[in-house]
Amino acid sequence: MPGGTPTIKDVAERAGVSVTTVTNVLHGRGGRFSEETRERVMQAVEELGYRPNQIARSLVRRRSHTLGVVVEHFRGALLGNPYYSTLLDGILAEAVRSGYQLKIIALERPDPSHARLSIEDGSVDGAILAAPLYGSPLLRWFEECHIPRVVAGSSPHDLRAACVDVDDEGSVYAAVQWLIRLGHRRIAFIGGPTNYWSAQQRERGYLRALHDAGITPTSHWIRRGNYSTLSGRQAMEKLLQVRPAFSAVVCCNDWMALGALEVLRRRGVLVPDDISVLGFDDVEAAAVASPPLTTIRQPVREIGIASAQLLIRQIESGQPATERVIFPGELVQRDSVMPYSAEPSDRAKPLRRLRSRRRRR
Amino acid sequence: MPGGTPTIKDVAERAGVSVTTVTNVLHGRGGRFSEETRERVMQAVEELGYRPNQIARSLVRRRSHTLGVVVEHFRGALLGNPYYSTLLDGILAEAVRSGYQLKIIALERPDPSHARLSIEDGSVDGAILAAPLYGSPLLRWFEECHIPRVVAGSSPHDLRAACVDVDDEGSVYAAVQWLIRLGHRRIAFIGGPTNYWSAQQRERGYLRALHDAGITPTSHWIRRGNYSTLSGRQAMEKLLQVRPAFSAVVCCNDWMALGALEVLRRRGVLVPDDISVLGFDDVEAAAVASPPLTTIRQPVREIGIASAQLLIRQIESGQPATERVIFPGELVQRDSVMPYSAEPSDRAKPLRRLRSRRRRR
DNA sequence: CTGAAAGCGCTTACAG
DNA sequence: CTGAAAGCGCTTACAG
Q1: Domain range enclosing B265
Q2: Cβ B37 to strand D below 7 Å
């Protein structure tokens, strides 16, 4: 190693053996070397501070022991979005547990040919596509490519590739059913951006639950935002002008619900006394909002873990998978929903009432 | 390519040229091939769907064009922590911008020899150590290793390696000074876990500001938590028993501040009327808390970006760097701090008062 | 038990 | 303008 990092050849020379033997002891291929040889080799490794070059190893083994996570539409903040970071966290946990490394492939545009350059290049053994947008060109490519792969997060139902997701439609359907059982009939909806599969599915669940209960939703009850707190505020402002007034609102995500809560508080409308508010996601802020937000928890981390498992299984078995793994959403009951009550709230001592009902987490 | 992925050799054969020529046109080394040759090669590439194997390229070039991010103490959730995910987001943004990929190296234990195996193995061109714990063995290794590297987040002041961080001590010092200018003199402190550099530095800033103002802090005013909301609640419960009572509390992070806020609200103590509360970090939940939390924003994403820049500069120049890049914290004034007032709050109509003072974001 | 040789897929002098 | 050859650092049959 004239001036550089020691290689297996340096170790072999120092130990006075062949590189084949070094490889054998390094991989513990028993019976192919004497104990004395093993010791000499290990000592040389130690003295030289030798570390096998994984790149070279990957080249010959055609395995990188690395999982690729491809995220499209990367402009500005991405992991700032807790959904992505939690998903990644789950993937990372499972990868580490199974001895894989993680490579993040951030695409500025959803360009399949660019994606292929970074993925089908030997640097990853398989890929997870994280929460693709509606109609993303990457989906088509993903269906056709031959490397192990799985889509994590919402994707078309007829996708010919393995995928893992929460049951968006079913969770909202169940939650709205619950609201109806609590006596609510005029239930508004703050939807998400239509270029998200998740937003579409959730809205569908809302509509179907109303329909199955014999309630005809009017389009006035539905407003859409872009998942931001600001858009939640704007949607609620509009909704507040609708007559007859609604008694509950389900929001497509927590941030919009939090925005809605703000507007309600500013207007002196009591939650949940006057209006019940339901969110989706269970972001951290939901628990510390006032009142603490009742919401549908989506097991994002578990989705990440399951995605990685499914991917690793494909890699190690050599068998492609096309199954869909669907997790149920979980209703997290806090303090923003209560049974419907026709009597107007007593606004004289709202603080006391809120305080007395607040549950400890 | 008998049954497998096409290689450069397949392209050369199909185009009827040598692999050298294929390489040359692929890299656009002008003047080394005719226009006609170029076209034949490109057509073969197209027809075969050829994509260069980056692993092979890395082996000969000794450059992977990949940045490593090493995170120690990976047990369970990691990126669930917004600090890490935001840091990673900044690193990712800069990496993508500069044409680098990202590899995440999650260490279950802070074991240098294990870390070396994953880093000094040719798979990354340099490494960023993300927010090492106090006394981490990785720090020592990081100082000694010869690959390009930078520490992102708090680290010892005498570290012999490049690092990027926020000015923890200075930011808290300035904020406490501000509180003092607002008339507060009995200022409590909810500290963080002492195995974080950041927590140590922030506490030091608090102490120094009091000292410089001629105020002697009593140990009763200081409680430490573990950065969780729960620990913030517990700390505040204890603090509330101290007499004379304090008029302001600075919290080592927002989650503990949020926990403190909860306890105060439950006890009917008005914030900021009775007690001013200051956080640190400006997590998303801080803005939607009630009252919205006044806090010190730490430019985490910018720290990530600067770390990546510093690393890439080292990689591309071949020159090691040892500079410290320190960002100032930014005071984000919301509604949880007000000037000291000796008169007790009028608890009869607290809601109205809170509402009237609430600022729009 | 041990080692010489071929090869993974590319790039880089170098010679023509 | 073009190509044969050596080599990056490792692994894997294969022969002894």
Answers
A1: 168-298+331-360
A2: yes
Nearest to B117 among A51, A89, A355 (CB): A51
CATH of the domain at A21: 1.10.260.40
Q: CA A6 to CA A11: how far, in whole Å? A: 7
B66 lies within 8 A of chain A by CB: yes
* Protein CA A42 to sugar C1' C6 (Å): 26
Within 8 A by CB and 6+ apart from B251, the residues are: B189, B190, B232, B257, B260, B277, B278, B279, B280
B262·A288 Cβ contact <8 A: yes
In a domain, B158, yes or no: no
pLDDT of residue B353: 38
Residue B356 within any structural domain of the chain: yes
pLDDT score, position A327? 96
**B253 within domain boundaries:** yes
Residue spans of chain B under pLDDT 70: 1-3, 30, 73-80, 343-361
Structural domain count of chain B: 2
Whether the CB of A37 is below 8 Å from some CB of chain B: the reply is no
Q: Which of residues 50-69 of B touch strand D (CB under 7 A)?
A: 56, 59-60, 62
pLDDT digits 0-9 by tens, B226-266: 999 999 999 999 999 998 899 999 999 999 999 999 999 99
CA distances from B39 to A116, B5, B6, B30, B43 (A): 22, 22, 18, 13, 6
Reported as a single tens digit per residue, the pLDDT across A150-195 is 999 878 888 888 999 999 999 999 999 999 999 999 999 999 998 8
Position B233 scores a pLDDT of 96
Interface test mutation site (partner A, options B92, B288, B300, max chain A beta carbons within 10 A): B288
Output b/e per residue, B238-257; b: 16+ Cβ within 10 A. ebbeeeeebbbbbbbbbbbb
CA-nearest residue to A71 within chain B is B92
B79 and A86: CB-CB below 8 Å?
yes
| Last residue in a domain, options A17, A32, A50 | A50
Determine, yes or no, domain membership for B117. no
